[in-house]
Amino acid sequence: MSNIRNIVVLTGAGVSAESGIDTFRDAGGLWEQHRVEDVATPEAFARDPELVLRFYDMRREAIQTKAPNAAHAALARLDAEWPGELLIVTQNIDDLHERAGAKRLIHMHGEHLNAWCTGCDVRSRWTGPLIDRPACPACGAAGLLRPDVVWFGEMPYRMEDIYRAINRADLFVSIGTSGAVYPAAGFVREARAAGAMTLELNMEPSQGSHWFTEARHGPATQLVPEWVE
Ligand code: BJW
């Protein structure tokens, strides 16, 4: 990596799979138990808030019992030691990257431990259930908290910062994502257009695998530490 200074790493559900957190689109994944239209759109929340809140309460509780794996640890090590620019962009709402020690991190699809008050627009740390429609800790209004996650049709977070980093990157690495969801699925093309080398580390070829200059397939806990060393 001698000619590389700036790195952007994109991660998806596959990086947390070996920590015991379900992916979305694999066999047995979350979307097999819940239709995406029923739980991950603003329309679904307006139609049946209890179903959506129960889905996120269940995941928030489960994630808190999981621990970072060797892939999260390797990325945290890279973050601590890489002298150039580095940005880890995760689509995951879990906090395993930061629990492993990563600092240069953006959660583009939100965080399971945040609640967002649709009344006062304040985000608060939230570890418990939302199904009981608790009052917002900031404004006190009842029943207006929703999970602070990005649903289909909503704008992912910090897109300007992400595109700025991608356009400065010498290397773009995509880990554990199916490439089915935009805008993250388009980052590889943006990085290539900006002249970066692109590497996919995934269990299987993703939908956008052909866009990468190099692809390695296997479990993240093996591929990521191998790549970082
Ligand atoms: C392993 C492994 C192991 C397993 N080791 N690997 C352009 C074209 C078409 C449509 C659109 C478009 N632009 C926008 C859209 C609409 C829409 C979209 O993409 N629809 C698609 C279905 C086509 N996108 C949006 O609405 C987004 N908003 C938006 O675009 O706003 C406008 C905008 C445009 C341009 C710039 C800026 C803004 C919002 C998308 C929000 C997605 N939300 C979710 C839910 C978040 C909260 C929650 O967690 O519940 O995000 S959906 C879900 O999918 C979640 C994930 O972050 C996301 C991606 O999933 P991921 O991580 O890839 O998981 P999987 O399961 O799909 O794949 C796992 C992979 O890991 C697999 O490949 C396995 O093989 C692998 N794996 N075990 C290594 N051990």
Could you describe the 3D structure shown?
With 229 residues, this protein is of the alpha/beta class. It has two domains: 136 residues, Rossmann fold; 82 residues, 2-Layer Sandwich (SIR2/SIRT2 'Small Domain'). The chain is built from ten helices and nine strands. Helix 6 runs parallel beside helix 10. The chain is globular, with a radius of gyration of 18 Å. The model has no long low-confidence stretch (mean pLDDT 96). The site of ligand BJW has 36 residues, from helix 1.
Structural class: alpha/beta
So how many helices? 10
Number of individual domains: 2
Helix-residue proportion: 25-40%
**Which range does the strand content fall in?**
15-25%
Radius of gyration of CA atoms, rounded to a whole number: 18 Å
Biggest β-sheet strands, sense, barrel: 6 strands, parallel
How many strand segments? 9
Subcellular location: Cytoplasm
Active site: 109
InterPro entries: DHS-like_NAD/FAD-binding_dom (IPR029035), NAD-dep_sirtuin_deacylases (IPR050134), Sirtuin (IPR003000), Sirtuin_cat_small_dom_sf (IPR026591), Sirtuin_class_III (IPR027546), Ssirtuin_cat_dom (IPR026590)
Binding site for Zn(2+): 117, 120, 136, 139
